[in-house]
Design goal:
This protein is mainly alpha-helical and 428 residues long. It has a single domain, classed as Citrate Synthase, domain 1 (Orthogonal Bundle), CATH 1.10.580.10. It has 17 helices and five strands. The strands form two sheets. A three-stranded antiparallel beta sheet has the order 3-4-5. The protein starts with a strand and ends in a 27-residue tail after the last helix. The structure holds carboxymethyl coenzyme *A.
Length: 428
């Protein structure tokens, strides 16, 4: 018998099956042969929330949740955060290798020269109400790009994919910043190609009447590192949406809109916004123990805590905590940091959180930094989406090039009514 296999006995029939194990996984389709009789459909695996289902093979990101390890293409997140830039990391995530100097120059040139959006998109963004959530604006505007770049439908053409990659990475900050300026009732600021990716984003957010915006180098670097930390995170909800929508061969703008919509929710990328609301609600350090007690009783969840994969400290949260001090030197300290640190301290000593391995995640400290930079909470998930765009694109391309992949179409267990005859309304 092959040692790399699983032997399963179906006690309904007494039959035994040998299922090959590859990469510590069995193929769900191998279960289909297990039948009670010939008419039987065959066994399926039931896995709501895909808690134990690998939907793809990937070479992009490794997370070791037990050890708190995150690597893009093999490079530890700590090294990239310290030594790389967001655009270099984006190149790595999308292309698989760190670029040479000339490859990087070309990449930066191409991204920088796709930052402008069509003037009609401005009108489109203007159509939103002043209090529209900027994430709703981003999702809609990203989908709208698909109507401006109809060549994006050529998903099988590598040159077209490359072009849409530049466009998406370049235009997401522009859409995000325009959404922000609209909500503030301020004129849009066009991209400045002389600035870095993060510096230009700050320019589009904050430029007022000065002729040339000069980003603060500490805040510029902080943004760049925050984008690096968010660049990819394997098969999370938003990325799964990207792959699912991409699997029907939609264009990448619509798929990114779907991914951003997945990210929007408070259990995912919207958690950073909720963390800030939570810290404000707690209000002071003295209220932390009572708040933790209420979370333990199931009244609500501690936002920014817990993760499907990490059962250890999220390495991104550790890096963000370090950046916070540097940012506060420039912006002044955000008093919410003291509440956050106390909340973390109490929770990490508490049996409820310890036994469930609930640690602070990436969203726990990022919002405190953003708030110190005067960015409204509703923008937080938008910032997450900008950073995540290279990850979405690279996961989408990996899916398209993977011969084993097919349109995403899970099965269900039907537990509804059996066939019944229509009853006229007067007889019901
Ligand atoms: N506060 C209190 N209890 C929690 C929390 C929390 N934040 N997270 C999980 N639990 C409890 C949960 O009640 C359950 O307890 P029990 O076993 O007694 O029923 C146990 O821990 C396991 O939770 P789960 O819901 O089965 O875990 P999951 O893997 O399905 O959910 C999660 C992961 C991130 C959705 C969840 O931890 C959560 O809701 N956290 C708060 C929202 C948040 O911070 N999300 C950001 C995630 S990181 C950024 C990103 O990549 O999206």
């Amino acid at each position: 018998m092959n040692k790399n296999s699983l032997t399963v006995t179906d006690n309904r029939t007494g039959k035994t099956y040998e299922l090959p194990i590859e990469n510590e996984t069995i193929r769900a389709m191998d279960l289909r042969q297990i039948k009670e009789n010939e008419e039987d459909f065959g066994l399926m695996a039931y896995d709501p929330g895909f808690k134990n289902t690998a939907a793809c093979k990937s070479t992009i990101t490794l997370i070791d949740g037990e050890k708190g390890i995150l690597r893009y293409r093999g490079y530890p997140i700590e090294q990239l955060a310290e030594k790389s830039t967001f655009l270099e990391t984006a190149y790595l995530v999308v292309n698989g290798e760190l670029p040479t100097k000339s490859e990087l120059d070309e990449w930066i040139w191409n991204v920088t020269h796709h930052t402008i959006i069509h003037e009609n998109i401005k009108k489109f963004i203007d159509g939103f109400r002043y209090d529209a959530h900027p994430m709703g604006i981003l999702v809609s505007a990203a989908a709208a790009l698909s109507t401006f770049y109809t060549d994006a439908k050529n998903i099988k053409d590598p040159e077209s994919r490359k072009k849409q990659t530049y466009r998406l990475i370049a235009k997401m900050p522009t859409l995000a910043a325009f959404g922000y300026r609209h909500s503030m009732g301020m004129p849009f600021v066009y991209p400045d190609n002389e600035l870095s990716y993060a510096g230009n984003f700050l320019n589009m957010l904050f430029k007022m009447t000065e002729l040339k915006y000069k980003p603060d180098p500490v805040l510029e670097r902080a943004f760049d590192v925050l984008f690096i930390l968010h660049a990819d995170h394997e098969q999370n909800c938003g990325t799964t949406a990207m792959r699912t929508v991409g699997s029907s061969e939609s264009d990448p703008f619509c798929a990114v809109a779907a991914a951003a919509a997945g990210l929007y929710g408070p259990l995912h990328g919207g958690a950073n916004e909720q963390v800030l609301r939570m810290l404000r609600e707690i209000g002071s350090i003295q209220n932390v123990p009572d708040y933790v007690k209420r979370a333990k009783s199931g009244e609500f969840r501690l936002m920014g805590f817990g993760h499907r994969v990490y059962k250890n400290y999220d390495p991104r949260a550790k890096i963000i905590k370090e950046i916070a001090d540097e940012v506060f030197e420039v912006t002044g300290k955000n008093p919410l940091i003291d509440i956050a640190v106390e909340l973390e301290r109490i929770a990490l000593e508490d049996d409820y959180f310890v036994t469930r391995k609930l640690y602070p995640n990436v969203d726990f400290y990022s919002g405190i930094i953003y708030e110190a930079m005067d960015i409204p909470v509703t923008m937080f998930p938008v910032l997450f989406a900008i950073g995540r765009t290279p990850g979405w694109i690279s996961q989408w391309e990996e899916l398209l090039l993977d011969k084993e992949q097919a349109i995403s179409r899970p099965r269900q267990i039907y537990l509804g009514e059996d066939k019944r005859d229509y009853v006229q309304i007067e007889n019901r």
